[in-house]
Specification:
Structural class: mainly alpha
Shape: elongated
Largest sheet: 2 strands, parallel
Strand order of the largest sheet: 1-2
Helix content: over 70%
Distance between the termini: 21 Å
Number of helices: 13
Order of helices and strands: HHEHHHHHHHEHHHH
Length: about 400
């Protein structure tokens, strides 16, 4: 599972266009020594502002948008769109490769997280393919009449790309905390295992446990210790990736604030029809299809009618897909809320068990190891509660980005 998470977080960089600004990032690193960059404490609420202000791609997009009108009708504009399409083709290949790698990863049994990641990547591939098709139509139109709606299309694509970058950084931020909780859980498991090994060593000394059983426990400890080191390295890599996305040196000092508590009443405060209208008005795929439809509707000729019909079908399909996506995101929020409430109920049960265990220990009825195991179970369940709360927050953020026009 850790390998899948790492792969997906790396994919966030691909989707955000990390390759496109590798040269810019290298220049920043070369020109700005690490010692000149102060510690940055990044809270979730600050991510969008920080990314919009400092991300090299978004800054370049602002320049492109400012000068977009100057490109209209020139060969340079056609070349720019072709270059963008080539970048999307490369992104499609990378995304498909990641999807293939994850699907080839063996699974010990049902894994909803893995299945969700696979579904998300399949949606990403389909979305990229739609964008490539739309850009092909745009290139064809530019050759025949390069001034038609070029600015509107370009602005839609730029705004959508900027939103994807911001969401990509948010995803890495949330992924960092997911991995941090896994690390905390693994350390807790290691502590419990060390206690068990200590008991088994004493039992082995008096012949109650075989050397093979004891060695198996020690091998498990070695694996956990290696896993901890691997996760610590992954966390360091994620901090570096987030730094780069913020236009900083990869090794610049950065501290990531805690994930905010999820709003459990989020759905109760939403006007779903208004949210759907907002999503429809901001969604780039829908707006591009609408531009194509309206543009061809104003033209005459058989080819214009065919293109209008294609654009209309695309528009209608995107609108229907948007409604289905909203329902899916709403169900996901409901599911995460149920998971959180169940985890809290289990924590309450374990706390009651711990209280009883503490009383029995104080009366000398049980050994210290039993008390420590009960304490460990409570700590592990608290981690699960925190994870469930963070998953609910993530589901809510996906819905909020959906309202803002992004297909998450």
């Amino acid at each position: 599972m850790k390998r899948i998470i790492s792969t997906v977080l790396t994919l966030c960089l691909i989707i955000a266009g990390a390759t496109a600004f590798a040269g810019s990032a290298a220049a920043i690193i070369e020109d700005t020594p690490p010692r000149t960059q102060p510690m940055l404490r990044l809270n979730h609420a600050d991510i969008e502002q920080q990314v919009r202000r400092n991300n090299p791609i978004i800054r370049n997009n602002a320049i492109t948008q400012q000068g977009l009108t100057d490109f209209i009708g020139t060969p340079m504009m056609v070349d720019t769109v072709i270059a963008g399409q080539n970048a999307l083709l490369a992104m499609q290949r990378n995304t498909s490769a990641v999807l293939t790698q994850i699907m080839a990863t063996p699974s010990d049994g049902p894994d909803p997280v893995r299945d969700g990641i696979i579904m998300s990547l399949m949606n990403d591939v389909a979305s990229i393919e739609r964008d490539i098709m739309q850009m092909s139509m745009q290139i064809e139109q530019m050759h025949s009449d390069p001034v038609r709606n070029t600015v509107s299309r370009g602005i839609q694509q730029i705004n959508n790309a900027n939103r994807q970058i911001i969401w990509g950084v948010e995803s890495m931020y949330l992924g960092y905390h997911t991995l941090s909780r896994q690390l905390e859980q693994t350390r807790e498991n290691l502590t419990a295992l060390n206690l068990n090994i200590g008991i088994m060593e004493r039992r082995h000394a008096v012949g109650h446990v075989t050397a093979r059983t004891l060695q198996n426990l020690r091998n498990t400890r070695t694996q956990l210790e290696a896993g901890i080191v691997s996760m610590e390295n992954e966390l360091e890599n994620l901090r570096g990736q987030i730094n780069i996305m913020l236009g900083r040196n990869a090794n610049a000092p950065i501290s990531l604030g805690a994930v905010p508590a999820a709003d459990r009443d989020f759905l109760d405060s939403r006007d779903r029809e208004r949210d759907l209208r907002s999503a429809r008005g901001s969604n780039a795929a829908i707006n591009l299809a609408r531009i194509d439809r309206d543009e061809n509707a104003a033209l005459s000729g058989e080819n214009a009618r065919r293109q209008e019909a294609i654009a209309t079908n695309t528009y209608d399909s995107e609108v229907r897909a948007l409604s289905q996506r909203q329902e899916s995101l709403i169900r996901a929020i409901g599911d995460r809320l149920v998971t959180l409430e169940l985890a809290e109920e289990q924590l309450e049960v374990l706390n009651q068990t711990l209280e009883e265990t503490q009383r029995r220990f104080s009366r000398g009825m049980i050994a210290r190891i039993d008390l420590e195991n009960a304490q460990s179970e409570v700590r592990l369940q608290q981690i699960r509660v925190n994870s469930a709360d963070a998953e609910l927050f993530n589901a809510i953020r996906r819905y909020e980005w959906f309202v803002n026009g992004l297909n998450t």
